[in-house]
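README: folding subset

This subset contains proteins for which both the sequence and a predicted structure token string are available. Records are stored as plain text. Below is the entry for Molybdopterin molybdenumtransferase (405 residues), shown exactly as it appears on disk.
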Amino acid sequence: MPRSVAAHRQAVAELLTAAAARKGTLRLPLMDALGRVLAVDLHAPLSLPPFANSQMDGFAVRSADIPDGGARLRVAAPVPAGAAPEALKAGHAAPIMTGAMMPEGADAVVPIEKATPGTFPAPTDVDAEVELPTVEPGTYVRDCGSDIEKGALALASGTLLGPSQLGLLAALGLGEVETRQPLRVLLVTTGDEVLEPGTELTAGKIYDSNGTLLEASMRQAGLDVVRTGISGDQPGDLLAVLRQHLRNTEKPVDVIVSTGGVSKGAYEVVRLAMTGHPVEFLHVAMQPGGPQGLGTFEGTPFVGFPGNPVSCLVSFEMFLRPALSQVAGTPSPRPVLRVRLAADLTSPEGKHQVRRGTVVDGVVRMEGGAGSHLVHALARANALVQIPGDVTELAEGDEVEVWML
Ligand SMILES: Nc1nc2c(c(=O)[nH]1)N[C@H]1C(S)=C(S)[C@@H](COP(=O)(O)OP(=O)(O)OC[C@H]3O[C@@H](n4cnc5c(N)ncnc54)[C@H](O)[C@@H]3O)O[C@H]1N2
Ligand code: MOO
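--- output ---
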């Protein structure tokens, strides 16, 4: 009886719980923290904006100086961005640039486009005057702390640090940030037919797509990855490679992920190598990614993905990524949408099918067929299309769940 997708995801999460709990924190320069997870609640060390400033190039005024019909005001010394201006005298308007600090006493900005004349006077013109329309207090003023007040929670522990979050930390003047130490994955691809990209292709051989596909997925999900290179179909070779890396105390490994060698062939290297170790080989009611291995190898959690590249990606997205979110707080789940099918489709009964598709304007079009070797079609897709095991036929316009890649 195949295992359900949810049950296998839970089994992967349980396998990784102890390893995730052992991880500490790591203080990193901001750019090195891209894709990492914040380890602490972070409170703003200063207010943003740190001072009231102008949202427009224009004139800083005391709004009370300008009645309904407008007023003619004396032009004060200009306030460029970066300057600490003098207080604004009554009856005056100070030329002020976007981002420049509001002078004390000024409470509004009139944009230059609304001024007469509509250009700033030369700084040498000490007798200049300007005619301005009436303005509400606060107009085009970005108040101190209007984005965040000093001491308020800026980012909660567990936040994934992407460009926007790191930009906020930089705006708050922080050069470093406390991150969760990521789990380190030992990634091994297997198969006598598999060659490193960049080498010469000979008869019967193919290039290793899985290593790159999975390392990229794992890095994107905030994991550390150590690659072993390709292991051939001799179980002894695979065992030697794994043991060599597990002995490396400088880079201790938290989980091993292998690809290939888990199904029913005559030379299933991962199955053979794991004989006598507590690794279970089973079938999940999912396509692609049905054959799976799960257990421990000499105390280290072991996850064996099938060899087909699309099966590897689907296995990562369906099992490892969500399991990591659950146990390691790596908050990188895929955005889930409900969209309409561009065309009819069929799906095998009893298997949760994960098709690849392109979502545009709320409609999903399939990319390629169901085959798990279709890497070109995968590269065109922007979503995984989820078709539950009890659904065998869907019509154009029917709603389906998609996970955006
Ligand atoms: N009799 C059966 N045969 C197969 C079954 C089955 O249930 N009964 N399951 C099929 C399914 S589904 C899958 S998925 C694969 C899984 O096979 P393995 O995990 O044993 O993987 P391999 O046989 O080593 O490789 C499968 C496929 O993928 C290619 N491959 C392997 N590694 C790489 C790599 N690093 N980069 C690119 N491509 C790779 C390999 O050449 C094969 O074409 O088994 C089915 N068979
Ligand atoms: O499960 Mo296999 O991954 O269908 O190709």
